[in-house]
Write a structure and sequence with these properties.
Elements: E1 20-22, H1 27-36, E2 40-43, E3 57-60, E4 69-71, E5 76-80, H2 85-93, E6 97-98, H3 110-115, E7 132-138, E8 144-148, H4 154-157, E9 166-173, E10 175-176, E11 179-186, H5 190-194, H6 197-201, E12 206-211, E13 217-224, E14 255-256
């Protein structure tokens, strides 16, 4: 499934029909694309399973990634919408800071995840959009609009599915870096998982269930240092699964949030440069 210039979604469930894919390298170019296009939408990392991001023309912001700007006093970081969560997580951890929540996969773009209300993980954590304190976008007539959390319009714009304009930058709330561990349990019966879902899902910083709906059920529990032992809520033995290069360590080994919080895949270590 090759599709047009934009190819297909990540899961290959949809082939983009757009005839043109723009990759502007400056704000001036981006504004020109938006004002001259017949119908233009922003393309993220193609993780929507539907035609949500498709249009007559698409624009990718992958060439507009700049170094994040950290404001420790305000506890926030300003980032490009096209930057990935993996790159930002490594950048923040290198400086002693963290996000409260992460996308499921490290290569997902921040702007795309926020604008589509991607969930992140953890019952007590809001969706990834909850971290947004301000954003910048280019409207359909080429204006650059900046909205922060003092503006009541932010709540309507932050998860607008690209309908308001193309988001170029976001300011996200940050917290001091923290450590997590992930434990994986094999659960023999589905009934053991669902008999008290609220208690189970709130038993740790993040709890995820993976199942084939037949006889294979896995429970992933991520706990912060200082939390109660969530394993007490589970009556099954710890799964003896080997850790591989692309899987978050599962055997209760403590590590930085940037390498533990993504539900399944490791976040790349900081290399000193932003990809």
């Amino acid at each position: 499934m090759s599709g047009g210039p934009a190819g297909t979604t990540w899961a290959e469930t949809y082939r983009f029909t757009a005839s043109t894919l723009h990759r502007p390298s400056s704000m001036g170019e981006l504004r020109g694309v938006i004002t001259s296009g017949t119908r233009v939408r922003a393309l993220g990392t193609r993780h929507s399973f539907t035609d949500l991001a498709d249009s007559a023309e698409l624009v990718s912001l992958e060439r507009l990634i700049i170094e994040p700007v950290l404001d420790a006093d305000r506890r926030e970081v300003r980032v490009s919408a096209a930057m990935s969560y993996g790159a930002l997580a490594a950048w923040l951890e290198h400086r002693g800071w963290a996000l409260q929540n992460l996308a499921s996969l490290p290569h997902i773009s921040i702007g795309g995840a926020v604008m589509t209300a991607t969930h992140g993980s953890g019952l007590a954590n809001g969706s990834l959009s909850a971290a947004v304190r301000a954003l910048e976008l280019v409207t359909g007539d080429g204006q650059i609009l900046r909205i922060d959390d003092t503006d009541p319009r932010l709540a309507g714009v932050v998860v607008s599915l690209g309908a308001v304009g193309v988001v170029t930058r976001l300011s996200l709330a940050i917290v001091p870096s923290y450590r997590l561990r992930q434990q994986t349990f094999a659960v023999a019966r589905w009934a053991d998982l669902v008999h008290d879902v609220p208690a189970l899902m709130s038993s740790a910083y993040s709890v995820s269930i993976f199942t084939d709906w037949l006889d294979r059920h896995e429970l992933l529990i991520k706990s912060r240092e200082g939390d109660a032992d969530a394993a007490d809520h589970v009556g099954s033995a710890l799964t003896d699964l080997p850790d591989t290069e692309n899987v978050t360590p599962r055997r209760g080994v403590w590590g930085p949030w940037s390498e533990r919080l993504a539900p399944a895949v490791k976040v790349v270590k900081h290399s000193g440069q932003v990809p």
